[in-house]
Amino acid sequence: MFLESFGSNTKVPPAKSLPLFMAGIGDRLRIASISAGHTAQARLIELGLLVGQEITVLQRQHRGPMVVAVGDARVALGFGLSSKVFVTPVDQPREGR
Predict the structure, then answer these.
(1) The CA-based dihedral angle spanning residues 9, 44, 83, 25, taken in that order and rounded to the nearest 10 degrees
(2) For residues 13 and 49, what is the distance between their CA atoms, to the nearest angstrom?
């Protein structure tokens, strides 16, 4: 169903990942895949957003810009770029264990 509406060159995100724009403030995430053209991929790489990188959502607006922490850096992304980055939650240890 998802693939039928796109061309054969579309990169399919992992099944349990969601677009970054759906994440909430404070969520710790790992970048699972990036589904973007060469220009957008190059821009994300310049910003330090690589597959496997752990990030934390610091600020966000509904369908608007968001700020994420990438290591010691803070990166602002618009809705367009954040919809091309697919993430999975980072397992966080439970308190008291």
Answers:
(1) 150
(2) 16
